[in-house]
What we know:
The complex is a heterodimer of chains A (283) and B (216).
Chain A: H1 10-18, E1 47-53, E2 57-63, E3 67-73, E4 80-86, E5 89-93, H2 96-101, E6 113-115, E7 121-128, E8 133-134, H3 142-149, H4 161-170, E9 183-185, E10 188-191, E11 197-201, E12 208-213, E13 217-223, E14 239-245, H5 247-255, H6 261-277
Antiparallel strand pairs in A: 1-14, 2-13, 3-12, 3-14, 4-5, 4-9, 4-13, 6-7, 7-12, 8-9, 10-11
Chain B: E1 14-21, E2 26-31, E3 36-41, E4 48-54, E5 57-61, H1 64-71, E6 81-83, E7 89-96, H2 110-117, H3 127-136, E8 149-151, E9 174-180, E10 184-190, E11 206-212
Antiparallel strand pairs in B: 1-11, 2-10, 3-9, 3-11, 4-5, 4-8, 4-10, 6-7, 7-9
Amino acid sequence: MTDTLTTATTHAARDHARAQAGTVTDGMPTVPASAWPTAPGGRSSAMTWAETVPGGRYTSKVLARGTRLRLRDLDGSACAHLLLFRADATHERLNVADTVKVPWQAYPGAGHPLLSDQGRVLATVVADTSGHHDALCGTTHVAGNTAKYGAGEVHSSSPAGRALFTVAAAKHDLAPRDLPPSLSFFHGVRVAGDGTLTSIGTAGAGAYVDLLTHLPLIVLIANTAHPLDPAPTFATTTLEVTAWRAPTDLDALLDRTDHDPEYHRAVLNTEDARGAAEHGTEN
Amino acid sequence: MTTVVATPALVPGTVVLDETVGRRGPWSTVVAAGDVLTVVDLDGNQAVDTLVYDAHDTSSRYSAAATVAAQENLFLTTGSVLRDADGTALMTLVADEVGNHDTVGGACSQESNTLRYGHHTKHQHACVENFLVEGARWGLGKRDLVSNINFFMNVPVEADGTLGIVDGRSAPGRRLALRADRDVLVLVSNCPQINNPCNGFDPTPVRMIVTRPESR
């Protein structure tokens, strides 16, 4: 950018504005996503989402069924809080209670279904190099972050997850009433026999988790410190979000015959609802 | 003439409500700030699925996540503060004769029952049905339902993360008491589940008593 640009006139202001594009930061979307330099398998045309989300920020997207969504903790202190809604029926959304109760497992990892309140699979965790996740503590709120870091509003330097989700949801015409407890990835919590909840921190830089979507979804992601993060200062680092069309991955997952019975019935329910609502050829 | 009878309210005071919730049914009431709700597990090991809302603004409601994160413990017992998603107190557990209560299991539903037990359970009555029926009386709908408390239900978590509803720790007559920290709407499903031990495979009635402590 040249320092000779002024903003005293409309034409000069326009030139000044236009000269800003092309700046590269470590927290921004890549549009089109096909321009992402490291598409899996080199299949650039399959990419549908590529974005880096700074600590204390949020993002959202509508993703088609059969999309593989990868969340990566680039620098070792990201925490991806997640909410999912069916894009074609937003009243159906992630239910964390069923998500841990139905598969008899409190700690999400590879193979874990993310279930809706209607007995269907919204997405399945299909890869996980972290193992440090949490389905129990939800996200942070303004009062908590204010007590811990001095501020929690969206415009502050330590935004709370609830505040970030409120804005993200509003962009899909969803209100705070529509925000149930969320899941979080990359900052684990473990439960002791007496119920004590303890942070086990992150798995370090580079860890990733892959979700495969079973239905069209609104995905809300807030990247902000976990409620039990022991660090006294807010130091959430960048989250990388990529997604690509992966219908054959979904086909392969649905064709497997070694699923737990609860998961199998959740898949049956999902396919049943989808099949009933869609026109198609009988086969 | 007034007949004085011993009431099983855990916190003494003027009785402002004393009702029995029938087996398998819904129930709700508004508890005024400072009043205390005693829940009596009349026949033992009866899961009482419970949601709490600010009576004047139901968008402020119980958050299991905010509640357990604040106390850094998954179970509810004496001293536990039931918080909304912004961390503000709704009710406080002031007495408990059982020892712990579940925050993770949520409500049974016709839909989740098909996953957990098979499609033959689709038409068995379930807690979400109760919540929807009773919530509608207060203008609440599906979007207002979130992960609820299960009083008298026992859900341990093993070291490897395995969790599940196991035999309860309650017994006939065991009680707990919740003080309202503001005017709250308490929405209850007296759990009708018959496929796991949360009700001892036999749903039974519970008793709800609201007292107003003398000191108020």
